[in-house]
Structures are given as structure tokens and as C-alpha cells.
Amino acid sequence: MAPATVPCQYRTGKTLGSGTYAIVKEAVHIKTGEYYACKVINKKLMEGREYMVRNEIAVLKKVSKGHRNIVTLHDYFETAHNLYLCFDLCTGGELFDRICAKGNYYEEDAAALVRTIMGAVKYIHECGIVHRDLKPENLLFRTKDEDADIMIADFGLSRVMDDEKFHLLTEICGTPGYMAPEIFKKTGHGKPVDVWAMGVITYFLLCGYTPFDRDTQQQEMEAIIAGDYRFEPEEYWANVSATARDFVTECLTIDPTSRPTAAEALKHKWLASEQPHFVQSP
Ligand code: ADP
Ligand code: MG
């Protein structure tokens, strides 16, 4: 798949969002009138790694077509300064915003979302890819409908981006809240980091705040390394089943070799049965 060098097949419009590496704009394919989300990545961020990045993009293009809950990469091209990735447009917004709007999710709804996302994570892992940046900002709804499909976005590239710059950028842009302890200990960032992040996401869905939220990033990092979190304050957790808490506890296992894999997590009682086995009061 050779990258096309002519970006003028698309006309870009409003900015949809920006994240760690890139700005994402709405783009219309001029010939077909189809709308896409076009991710513009500054090539300076991948100096010396262009080859790896292009390779990874080819893999993403293939992999992203294989699962309905992964945002499909349709096209990519580059100019002297930027790399452009054209994805399916998700119009339903980020999971982050839906959690903030709702406060928290009912346990049944949370389990359904986590089951779907974990299924997509299992698929990505089977393809040999680690997401490394799973968080509610990278989970998008396909449409504005209440029951729209949830989609994993923003995966695969973090592995080939410059690690130092990545850390610098996370320092500037945001919270380390979803990062696994082994990332800070620099002992690895394989597939288990995604399961850890799913534990943090699940916690967030259930109560509306993250487990390692502290005043400073240093304290947050120390709390993550120590696995120091609680299902508190009690009033936020009163309606959450022991099974759900156990699922979170399993995903937040400090030792990555003892943490369940995505496939194992899917078999956890909380996700395994389609039937709700808990009573949820409104
Ligand atoms: P980064 O690597 O910079 O974090 P992302 O791929 O996460 O970039 O995109 C940044 C933001 O842009 C997302 O959080 C989301 O709000 C928006 N966005 C990304 N992809 C899409 C898409 N396919 N459809 C709609 N919005 C998107
Ligand atoms: Mg992102």
C-alpha cells in the first residue's frame, strides 16, 4: 500500500478533537461526498521512525477492518510536514463526555460496554497489537444514538512513536491515570497494560471518577505503582455488586504476569453471563 501524495482529494472542515499526537478534523472526500475523520500527525513527532510508522499504518489498515468495534482506517497520505490518516467518522462523541454527562453508568450498561470493548481488545491482541492508550477519550460512539456502537480509536501508533516525546507529551497534555504500574517501572508495556486500563475505565464507568486521582502527577504515579485505590466513598459504590468490584480488582492486578488476559477477563462472571446477576436500583 503506497501512500498517495495528493491530499487534495479531501477537503478538511471543523476540528473534531485533539489528543496526544495529533489534530483530528472532519474531512469530506470530494469525489464521493463521504465524510471521514482525518487525523493530522506532525512528522516531527516521528523523526527517524517514518519507516516504522508507515509499516504500522499498513497493519492498522488491515486490522481495523476486521472488527466492528474498531474505527476503520480507510486511507492515508502524506505531505512534507504531515501524515494524514482518514478514519470512519464517529459522530457520537467520546465515552468520556457521556460518562461526564451521566455521572456514572448503571452496572448493566457498564458491563455491556466493557464486554464489547474487551472483545475488541482481545481481537487487537490476537493481531499482535497493543493499544497502550486505552481511555474514555479514545473510545468513541459511532452515532449519536443512545445504543450506538462503541468504537476503539487511536491505537497501534503509540508503539512506534518516540517514547521520550510520548512521555513529555503526556506530561503536558494529561493524566497518567490509565497507565499500568509496569509502564512507570519501565519493566514492560505489553498486552497486560490494556487490561489494566480496562480496569481503570470500568471503575470510572461505575462511579464517575478514576481510582488513582491525586493532587499531583507524582502522587498519582506512586498510587498506581502501589495499587492504592479503594471503592470509596461508600455512597458512590453502594449499588455496585461484589462481582463488578471483583472484576475491577482482577484487572488492576499490579503484577502484569498475574493479571488476566483480555480473553480471560471476558470469562469473568461479571462479563460472561448476558443475564444480569445483580439487582440495580435506580
Ligand atoms: P491522539 O493520538 O492525538 O490522542 P486521537 O486519535 O485520539 O488522537 O484523536 C483525538 C480526538 O479526536 C479523539 O479523542 C476524538 O475526540 C476525535 N476523533 C478521533 N478519531 C475520530 C473519529 N474517527 N471520528 C470522530 N472523532 C474522532
Ligand atoms: Mg487519543
UniProtKB/TrEMBL annotation:
Whole sequence portion shown: 1 to 282 of 394
Organism: Ganoderma sinense ZZ0214-1
Boundaries of every Protein kinase domain copy: 10-271
Family: Belongs to the protein kinase superfamily.
Organism domain of life: Eukaryota
Residue sites binding ATP per the record: 39
Keywords per UniProt: ATP-binding, Kinase, Nucleotide-binding, Serine/threonine-protein kinase, Transferase
Name of the featured protein: Transporter
The keyword Amino-acid biosynthesis belongs to this UniProt entry's keyword annotation: no
One MF annotation (Gene Ontology) recorded for this entry: ATP binding
Keyword Nucleotide-binding part of the UniProt annotation: yes
